[in-house]
Amino acid sequence: MNLPPKVTPRAFARLAEIGAAGQGQALRVAVEGGGCSGFQYEIALDAPKDDDLVLESDGQKVVVDSVSLPFLANAVIDFSEELIGARFVIDNPNATSACGCGTSFSM
Asked: Where is the Core domain (predicted)?
């Protein structure tokens, strides 16, 4: 069964830290063609649009457009902080392979 993506509390907490909601913005997660594996994630702060799926917690929002939604079914959107840097990451069970940088995948 295809469920919408989930967002971890850590990802929502990071959005609160950067003050996205106070600027009327949400974290937009999209899938586009390209990258070294066929598809790539686009992650940016953006204003929600009418046809977006909105995932919300304590006023913080993550949005996914209707075209990207099937590619992100059952995925988990998280925030990772390591010595080499901090970034939003996606654990996508639909991806059959991924590149080393984690932003490109194939299905």
From this structure: 6-102
Q: What's the CA gap between 67 and 64, in Å, rounded?
A: 8
Tokens for 8, please give them: 């971890």
Q: Write the class of the CATH domain 6-106.
A: mainly beta
Task: Give per-residue pLDDT as tens, 44-59.
Answer: 999 999 999 999 999 9
What CA–CA distances, in Å, run from 73 to 22, 32, 59, 60? Answer: 28, 15, 23, 20
Report the C-alpha gap between 75 and 87 in whole angstroms. Answer: 16
Q: Which residues of the chain have pLDDT under 70?
A: 1, 35-37, 97-107
Phi, psi of 11 (to 5 degrees): -70, -45
Is the full-model pTM beyond 0.90?
A: no
List the structure tokens of 20: 């996205």
Q: Where are the domains of the chain?
A: 6-106
